[in-house]
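Hey L., structure's done. Input below.
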Amino acid sequence: MEEYSGYVGLDVHKETISPALANPGRSKPESLGVIANTKKSIQNLVHRLSREGEVLGFCYEAGPCGYEVYRWIKETGHDCVVVAPSLIPKKPGERVKTDRRDGLKLASLFRSGELTPVWVPDEEQEAIRDLTRARGEMKRVELQLKQRVSAFLLRYSKRYTAGKSKWTQGYYRWLAEVKMKFPVQQIVLEEYVGAVKQTEERVRGLDKEMERVLANWSLKPVVESLMALRGVQLLTAMSLVTELGDISRFDSPRELMAYVGLVPSEHSSGGKQKRGGITKTGNGRVRRLLVEAAWSYRFPARQSYHMQKKAEKATKPAQAIAWKAQKRLCNRYRVLQRNGKEPGKVATAIARELSGFVWAIACAVMAEQKTK
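Output:
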């Protein structure tokens, strides 16, 4: 922990901020009242606390207010960290929680070095992350609408028998010919189908926007190299990079595995040891993407035309790592399955190892970029 002339804890809300100052040493922190959550108020607070140019350290919890306060403080030349709320120490006996107390607590813990900072993306990376998250949310909306259409038809025994797959061109032609008993039910069906088509169009539009943005992104080589991995398409690769940032910032693959919550939890005391499922800490989106990609390793390892095509733009070291990953993880999947492990646990174990190969590819690409 760096030494600052003052440690400032900020309890940030939509309209207000409750700051508190802890001076170096063991003195009690003091509350600084309440200020508005605006750039001007933050600048005034910094000027009031640092009249002679002393360097201050600020901290606040990650939350719905984002990183604007962080950037306002960094513009003034002072340091700021955004801390993980789930890792803030809490006393079991505390039963009173106020904005003032939260600010005092943050200042005190920041001074003692007991807070865990989170990674803060730059503005460009945050914008691209918003794009990938929007695409994921829109896809979920599409799936929900399709489920509603299927449930509506099932209630009235309308079954599609012309093919095995739904939501194809043939299925849409069949939907156009479905006749309901009452006119109002026909209107409901038409509205549902129209909503599905609109959502599909929006998903395609976001896909095109992702391809357009990737063309000029500084981390494009990392994204294209990650696509060499089996089960990793454009959306997964871009989401991994936007959510994790510079993946090479992790010192080891184990650190990345722990960051995304894929390592086993443990509760041991004395001679008793108890291990449970994974910790599920950190970024849940990354964890979900890795588990989804892990299911593709249930098939034998092979270099299909599709995999070769999507790996064309990857670097040679990345392609070698991806093929090594495929051989190991496909074999690992069969071994775990043969040992009687549950399918969900097998996919989670594969996802944990897959994160290690993601780290290896990102580090290889970043190292190659630095040498150019």
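The mean pLDDT is 94. The two ends are 34 Å apart (CA to CA).

-- N.
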